[in-house]
TrEMBL record:
PANTHER family in the record: CYTOGLOBIN, GLOBIN FAMILY PROFILE DOMAIN-CONTAINING PROTEIN
Cellular localization per UniProt: Cytoplasm, Sarcoplasm
Gene: Cygb1
UniProt GO cellular component terms: sarcoplasm
GO molecular function: heme binding; iron ion binding; oxygen binding; oxygen carrier activity; superoxide dismutase activity
Keyword list, A-Z: Cytoplasm, Heme, Iron, Metal-binding, Muscle protein, Oxidoreductase, Oxygen transport, Transport
Name this protein carries in UniProt: Myoglobin
Pfam families for the chain: Globin
Summary of the function given for this chain in its UniProt record: Involved in oxygen transport from the lung to the various peripheral tissues. Monomeric heme protein which primary function is to store oxygen and facilitate its diffusion within muscle tissues. Reversibly binds oxygen through a pentacoordinated heme iron and enables its timely and efficient release as needed during periods of heightened demand. Depending on the oxidative conditions of tissues and cells, and in addition to its ability to bind oxygen, it also has a nitrite reductase activity whereby it regulates the production of bioactive nitric oxide.
Length: 154
């Protein structure tokens, strides 16, 4: 469904959890991408300029990887600011989903992978409660992205 059901308490705790990791958006965003590329090497194929990079160290130093990591975190940050407003939330998720489905042709399973790595990093850095507070957000993001993909004929 297109309406989200976050209680005020859930919104607050999700924002609190996200703020902790978003403080270092570029570094944490880079860590998430490098993990994804290392643990799921097929995901690198979408990024022509990362293809030749095999070492995690090399990826961490790459301006492109850092730039995209920051971009991913900024997009999620925008979504987190609108958890209490379905229309605004969808206004961010929809164009993002459409672009990834139609122009970039990214397999939607990669959104789940990236969300799981973000949750993993939250747990490592800030504990299980932090992760638990944010899990519903990642499910919501992935559900909406998958819906957009279906509408685009995936």
């Amino acid at each position: 469904s297109s309406t989200m059901s976050f209680s005020e308490a859930e919104v607050q705790s999700a924002r609190g959890a996200w703020e902790k990791i978003y403080v270092d958006a570029e570094d944490n965003g880079t860590t998430v991408l490098v993990r994804m590329f290392t643990e799921h090497p097929d995901t690198k194929s979408y990024f022509t300029h990362f293809k030749g990079m095999d070492s995690a160290e090399e990826m961490k130093q790459s301006e492109q990887v850092r730039g995209h990591g920051k971009k991913v975190f900024s997009a999620i940050n925008n979504m987190v600011q609108h958890l209490d407003n379905s229309e605004a939330f969808l206004g961010i998720v929809t164009p993002l989903g459409k672009k990834h489905a139609t122009q970039l042709k990214i397999d939607p399973k990669n959104f789940r992978i990236i969300c799981d790595i973000i949750l993993q990093l939250m747990e490592e850095k800030f504990g299980g409660d932090c992760k638990a507070s944010f899990e519903k957000v990642t499910n919501e993001i992935c559900t909406h992205l998958n819906n957009i993909y279906k509408e685009e004929g995936w």
